[in-house]
């Protein structure tokens, strides 16, 4: 029961975050989804027996109460792989300066929506037609200055 | 075995070409011609044996698991094509040195030799899989030979590749279907019992796929467009591949499978009608060309159509006609191509109208051209005349419908008359008319000789056609087992075929003499530009692809992730309704602590979602991870809990390193984005919870889990069952997973290097004169913090390294092992960075760590461990055990070292590269940033 609820919470949070702007939030969502998947795997092994699968000094009864070791082995490597991919994604965020092109659109606080949507904006950026106005650059520079202090 | 030796020798020839070519340049062709001559001589006894009806076969084991052997077999039909491949090969190689300019032709020679090898392999292959492999090799070598002549050849080469390779795919499917249906891939076995295929449900599909493969390769309508395009290749290539041999591969395939399908009316109708249509259309298009090379290309299309049609007759007469015309066509077409090459080189023009009066300036060239042209036109006493007679005879016997015979005969006459018309045009161009190009002179005999041989052979063999009878007889015997090949004679007497020949010549002459109105008429027929059909289809495919991929070009995850998510959620819902068992699950065991952990987790996750502070979000993520690892501990998974705990610490460290350079607050999101995202998230979360409830907790521990618990100690020599699974029972799995880490580490290194962020580590600052670091943008710790950090690091780092070693060593029996130990060492590395501003701090061991050598060493050790087992005669990755007194040593411990290095490599890559990354590039458009990044990378 707790496993199901935990999975529900983590999946909801993960899905919500990967649909947000900015790669860092996407990475956080990705990690949350990873947690959810790992919990599903372990609980698929059954939650009735919860003894750690360590055989040293274990008698018959202890072995009978041990959790399924196979999903644990799966999850262990899954955790480390998730870490590898998380690190890579963070590297991407770093290399790209976290530039979800949405960030280039005028801040919603300062006015109505800029442009007709995300697609056109990003295509312009890719094709080299700089969509940024002077204002956009200015606000970016401000942010970096903020980061440095 | 001799057959394998010959293929091996040909490959060896291709391999030594670069060496010879360095010294002899274009004259390398003579070496190859000599080599092919020798190979032909070596093969002759086998050919003789095959012509006597005793096929030569050789077998090597190849893939015994699926019953595939590398079998080569030389029979009559194979002999015909082997003769063409080697014979024409000798001529072409002897022709190349004078045709090619300059001295850098190693590539052309290597490719031509490799092509010859694959083509010979194709006609010798007696195994379907082998046949397919060689078929594809000819396609690939043809692609490279077409595409090797400069930028203009790229598109025709691609068109040829796509068309012929799609035919190759059809052949592959046919091969697989036949193998499944008959249970063997041995071609003679399959051909010996046609009913095996014919009675199976796949008879029709297989037939259709074979026809498709053959039609693409042999340029039948509607796939003909690649062949004229392929004429951008140099003339020897056109002569060899696209006239004499490779385009005949389709014909060969059709002949090969005639024992199975030859008597089927649908096969006959398809081959005859498409073949004759191609013959007529190709000939008409050829008549319209003035460029000699294009003319010959369309002529080849047309002639291949005729051969396809008579192959489709399926009787011994039909196959005999196909065989003899295949031979005749190779002779006259190779000659004509080579002569066109000569004329082109000498005169600089390939326009048939400018040939006028060639005999006055180039008498030998003109004579040879005339001979080949007449053979193509089917004029006695050339070989082309005999083959044309046989074709008429065969077409008349078409009987898949009552009207088929006469209709086929008439169409054949029309195609032949058109052929005659353009054949005579070439002849006329060479001999008649005023001499337009007086500056021409006869080329050197070395240039002419290779073209002269087939031209003269085509003329002599017409009268002496009985020489070919053994070849025809035995090739036909291989394709029509019950039929007896008709004997070929030069003079048939006053037969109906002779009458048809006379009619052909009469119509042809009329077409020739009325060439001006004929030209006007032909030019008035509007045909789509060559290849337009293909190009349109190709572009339409690209457009569909662009349409499908459009959402992915948006950089908003909402745009491209929501559809896959919706599909995933729908699939999950369907599965839940279809297979979910309600009411859910027998009572799941839930402890009170579980609820406490859950409550905290819910709070942490909620905070993580709503906060706009990057650092807070990362901290909450770490806290949530901590709770999940507590949950794992409660579930009886100490190793997993420990791993997750350490990973969370490192994730937080790496995230902080990255966040230094990023805005401290997330941007505010508009409701336009949050509302659909929240809705989707809610549905996905609910569904995931319901699915977990419905699908887990139903069964006891798995059988496999029981097995591991029972046998871990005695089989793997460890009491930590999870660790024994990782490094012993499922070591190959673990290696794959460790590889992912290695790839991520190297990917990270390259990513940061490519974006110009990777910088050499700053010099180590003197501890007393600690500054705020070398990166102005780096949020380096302040002096006081740093002092504390440095002092702590001195104490902690060695301790952590010891802990790491301890955890590693006990991993096989107690919680620990390569993954966990490496993560602990990784934390020491990270700590050193915070203390000293550079990876590993002042601890010498840690400072020496570099991601690339770590990953390489990890890979090396892991693979060595696996291979040692193989060397010891065990299965790949079987752990080896060694008992030293009481102590049980196992090679899986060594594999654990490999894992350790992989994981450490990843952590070091992350800390080192992200930590030392310089200030972020100035905000710029993507286009501007890339070159800027490159310059920085170059300096670094």
**Per DSSP, what share of the residues of chain A sits in E-state strands of 2 or more residues?**
under 5%
The general outline of chain A is elongated
Helix content percent band of chain A? 55-70%
Our Rg estimate of chain A from Cα atoms comes to 23 Å
The proportion of strand residues of chain B reads under 5%
* Total beta strands of chain B: 4
Derived structural class of chain A: mainly alpha
Q: How many individual helices of chain B?
A: 39
What is the mean pLDDT of chain A? 70
Mean of pLDDT of chain B: 83
Question: What oligomeric state do these chains adopt?
Answer: heterodimer
Give a nutshell description of this structure.
The complex is a heterodimer of chains A (149) and B (940). With 149 residues, chain A is mostly helical.
Describe the structure.
The complex is a heterodimer of chains A (149) and B (940). Chain A has 2 domains: 2-53 and 62-95; 101-148, no CATH class. In chain A, 64% of the residues lie in helices and 0% in strands. Chain A has helices at residues 2-18, 23-44, 60-64, 69-95, 118-126, 134-148. The N and C termini of chain A lie far apart (47 Å). The relative contact order of chain A is 0.10. Residues 101-149 of chain A have low confidence and may be disordered. With 940 residues, chain B is mostly helical. Chain B folds into 3 domains: 1-261, no CATH class; 291-529, no CATH class; 702-940, no CATH class. Helices cover 72% and strands 2% of the residues of chain B. Chain B contains 39 helices and 4 strands. In chain B, a hairpin with a 2-residue loop joins β3 and β4 (887-890). In chain B, α3 packs antiparallel against α21 and α20 crosses α23 (496-513). Mean pLDDT of chain B is 83; it is low at 764-781 and 920-940. The chains are: A mainly alpha (149), B mainly alpha (940). The interface between A and B is large, with 110 and 133 residues.
